[in-house]
Amino acid sequence: MGSDNRYLIRFLIGLMLLLLSCTIKEASASIHEYNDEAFIPRSNAFFFHGGSEGLYASKVHDSSSTSPDKPFQGKSFIRFEDVTFVRTKLAASKQPAMQQSTGLVEAIIFEVKDRERIGGAFLKTNAICCDPTLAQAGSCKLGEVIIQKDQDNQEWPKRIQTSFAGKDEEAKMKPETVEINSTGMYYLYFMFCNPELQGTLIKGRTVWKNPNGYLPGKMTPLMTFYGIMSLAYLALGLIWFLRFVQFWKDVIQLHYHITAVIALGMCEMAVWYFEYANFNSTGSRPMGVTLWAVTFSTVKKTLSRLLLLVVSMGFGVVKPTLGGITSKVLLLGLIYFLASEALQLVEHLGNINDLSKKTELFLVLPVAFLDSCFIVWIFSSLSKTLEKLQMRRNMAKLDLYRKFTNSLAVSVLLSIAWIGFELYFNATDPLSELWQVAWIIPAFWTLLAYSLLVVICVLWAPSRNPTRYAYSEEMGEDFDEEGIALTSSVDIATKLERKGLGEDLEEDKRE
Questions:
Q1: For residue 381, is it within any domain?
Q2: Edge-to-edge strand list for the sheet holding 45-55
């Protein structure tokens, strides 16, 4: 039966990776790719969202200070590469063959704080494109998007125009790089005003780069954060290893589980740092490196939850084994691993553009549900463990588990509060204007997991007196050493305690 389960697990993992490899393409830094995508009508215009990223201001503004082979080193920019507009054959056939411009498409780049400058809001109109009335008043040019220029910088918002020629079905943008000299959240829209161009498609890509590399602005601080967390896990691992070696004769099986989680945490942070550093320097995310990072992260998350669960059940402390529920614990861990791995693979290996809300919800809900299952099971197990220790009057272990319960309760309360903060943050910042602090959202969960691991390491640290937390069948798990000193009927109490122990052991086996 155990062999069949192993084959089933391998089959499920293999099937999941096969399906994901067929549907996921390699992602490329802050590169937004357009694959024959359509324009959406709004007001009297048609637009396509070309991307949005947080960009830092260029560190170098003088071209003479950059090297000839790297003219954009130290600069932020948005570069258009092979961007092509394809209109319908019907629209092209209606145009005169000799006319130089028979359709205009504009690329508009603006900072989010200047969004009101796009369209006719400043002219007290809802129109986005200039109409004959506004053109006659001299407010704008007919057939172009209405833009109110910044008085301090007449070049912004940036407008780049591309025209179809004669009966051509395609119009290709000239290769152009727009330098960014002000830190902000930048948006790119492709727009046209001519209704005859309806049905036009866009293909090509744009590359967005920050002064220090290709990492998107939201992700740049995370590379430093993962570097710091790698050192934090290394320090914890070193302290735990020295303690482990010092008292290696007294270690219990639980200590090996804790060691495995620490090791996986070190690997996870180191691989994520390497992945981000490679992403930042090369502008691409190799699937192999990202897959390793995601898998390390998922395995560590799964084992961390399983560690919390088995500790809550009293494994190695109140009972020597998990008994008949071992298979249920492993099944929950396997399902969580598969669901979490699928979510993270799609998030990190997919295109840089955001997932659709339906896809994101479909992937997030199973993980959230399984996390809830872990929380409910952990606290119900803790309740039973505390009850058993109280009945057995084992004050040392009871105090230990109360401290653990309090720490876990605080972490759950913090998690609930942080989820509320996340919802508020996302609801009040729909345009990502707070992109420079958005990195704290994922960083919090990493710090919380690390803090819980530190608490477990402190409470269950190897020592010369492992009986304060280790299961001891010889002494009798119900045996209260302090109680022996306080009673005159030692033999009677011992017999009663041993009898209770036998009943509890039978109960543990049934569980």
A1: yes
A2: 40-42, 45-55, 184-192, 104-111, 158-163
Instruction: Give one DSSP letter per residue of 32-64, joined into a string.
Output: EEEEEEEPEEETTEEEEEEEEEEEPPPS---GG
Q: How many helices (H) and strands (E) does the chain have?
A: 12, 10
Alpha-carbon distance of 400 to 460, in angstroms, equals 9
- Report which residue type is found at 488: S
**pTM for the full model?**
0.74
- Answer yes or no: do 176 and 227 share one domain: no
Q: For residue 290, what are the domain limits?
A: 217-467
Report if residue 1 sits inside a domain. Answer: no
- Residue 391 CB contacts under 8 Å (≥ 6 apart), including other chains: 478, 500
- Which of 170, 189, 209 terminates a domain? The answer is 209
Phi-psi region of 174 (alpha: psi -120 to 50; beta: other; left: phi over 0): beta
* β-bridge mates for residue 118, sequence order: 147
User: Per residue in 99-156, pLDDT tens?
Assistant: 888 889 999 999 988 888 888 777 778 888 888 888 888 878 888 888 888 777 778 8
End residue of a domain, out of 181, 209, 237: 209
If you search the block for the tokens 């204007």, which residue do you land on? 433
CA distances from 58 to 76, 163, 205, 309 (A): 5, 30, 22, 49
